[in-house]
């Protein structure tokens, strides 16, 4: 047989066309599946915005759509942070608002007159397909299209990504994760090609990422780390130089156009690694350029001069910048990533956010599922044939794993990395198995004495058998069972037995099927319940709903003056402004630690002192969340120690130990700390609670803490109950007016 005759013929045009049609059908089905699996909340409840932060994004988007860009950028929100207010335009990442605005305008242009709320609710499911497409492109760039296709399928239902991409999750991460993966793809593409075009595209997508989420800092630090690693591992190239130089300079200039970032892109500590890498890259390039034409004897001296001059120049600039106050420090959240104990010691407000807590192992397994097992397999195959692109994926995954251990919110960043590496491992594992099956059933028979057959026999034979083969000068024999056809049980040259290959593929697909089932379950049960509507199970097994939050917000909207000021813990500020359209003292922006500390001081103070502070800041109503009647554990009593810790920044007389038991525990019973029992939070939560009983328990039994409260009778002098929702989850108290005869004579029946 001639050499040309033994070579596989290139695929025909019809075969390539069929491949394109099948690929398009797969991605269309993938987009449909990813969109539909995120609609459980819309089907089960209604089209509604979830959680807390998305409500501010929704309010901002309505201003943008109804009043235009100029009104949005100049919007002063009088409904928040009373009496300070908030300048929204310069304190917000506007990317998600403009994304919904553009989608809304496009739909209206083509004749779909949808409300902006519907667009906001469905933004995250829409972007899930774009995330899958970006994951496909990045994985294909790092490995091959088979791994890329598997990555697209698995990332679209990844539980870690699902948490911020279900319908109603109108949060920044809903579009930011798409931008993050797309930026990484274009960066890797620019490194592989050295193309200026791809570098510019990477900076444009990076600008969009900056406009959507503060997590852009992860990108602007990961890419410099990768660049330094490439240099020290001997993989420096002009492609890397072109890619990073364009990305840093143009990316920094574009990111400065976002008002919330501005000159922080060249001043704050979290951006200094990128600047230092830019300087080091040019120094390294200069040294290599000098090496190309300078004799070896002079090279060392010139190199030392270049290094010394660079150090002096940079050192002088940094010293002058620090002396003039030009350079700022690290933001508290980023410090807590480097030092996990920083927030607890210095800024308890950061630690009070549930998303900033360290991640438990069960949360990681819940978010990435069986891909956690396949990530090491993917790393193995990557390091077997490492290249510039796959090395970036390794760096991305490793740093994501570290940061996830510090902050649970960053599971969003880890999920795509874990899925892509796992897809590479899974694809590389089953590829020889599929090749064996295809070769056995689809390939045309090869002549027995051909050169290709001899080579495959040698490659498929163990070392001992090869030595024996060389001795006996004959082809190896394969034992077969007379009960099975040899074409099924036995393997041809260089192949595995078909039954074995099919069995292994089946075993590997079982956890993949369970992963898909787990992803659908998380979309349905774990992440599709809006925080304002609680889902329960009735005694007969049917689903029940607790709608206390919207009931309370509607009561405020209908029964309080338009200028009423509502004091609550900062968790509920965005929802109060969005649902009730009333003025709040603090909200989820948490930009003013002093203001939040003052609210915390109201909640942990005795009634008279709390009344004085409320009058000082013009509070009309106090809202608390209490779950002791129905067993809702996310109430203010369980959060109470955070108002205590944060308020210490305002009033150093606050001592946490005074609110604890004599043994240092936290209790609501008779052994509770006296300061806790005297606090207005305790009194408002358990006011009239002794009249409430559950089944055979006596009145005053808290179903969350599983204890009876300390006091049977609680009376209020300066506050009065205005409203309690159906199951008492939300309780609202009116701040009484001053007596005409003065505060000291304030007496009420």
From TrEMBL:
EC numbers for this chain: 2.4.99.18
Recorded family membership: Belongs to the STT3 family.
One Pfam match: STT3-PglB_core
Pathway membership: Protein modification; protein glycosylation
Cofactor(s) annotated in UniProt: Mg(2+); Mn(2+)
Name of this protein: dolichyl-diphosphooligosaccharide--protein glycotransferase
Disordered: annotated span: 465-484
Lineage of the organism: Eukaryota, Rhodophyta, Compsopogonophyceae, Compsopogonales, Compsopogonaceae
Localization (cell): Endomembrane system
Entry keyword annotation includes Manganese: yes
Catalytic activity: a di-trans,poly-cis-dolichyl diphosphooligosaccharide + L-asparaginyl-[protein] = N(4)-(oligosaccharide-(1->4)-N-acetyl-beta-D-glucosaminyl-(1->4)-N-acetyl-beta-D-glucosaminyl)-L-asparaginyl-[protein] + a di-trans,poly-cis-dolichyl diphosphate + H(+)
Domain Oligosaccharyl transferase STT3 N-terminal span(s) in chain numbering: 22-421
Domain of life: Eukaryota
Entry's Gene Ontology molecular function annotations: dolichyl-diphosphooligosaccharide-protein glycotransferase activity; metal ion binding
EC class: transferase
Record keywords, A-Z: Glycosyltransferase, Magnesium, Manganese, Membrane, Metal-binding, Transferase, Transmembrane, Transmembrane helix
GO cellular component, one term: endomembrane system
Membrane-traversing stretches: 20-40, 119-139, 145-162, 174-192, 204-229, 241-260, 306-327, 364-383, 390-408, 494-516
Record flagged with keyword Manganese: yes
STT3/PglB/AglB core domain boundaries: 566-622
Membrane topology type: Multi-pass membrane protein
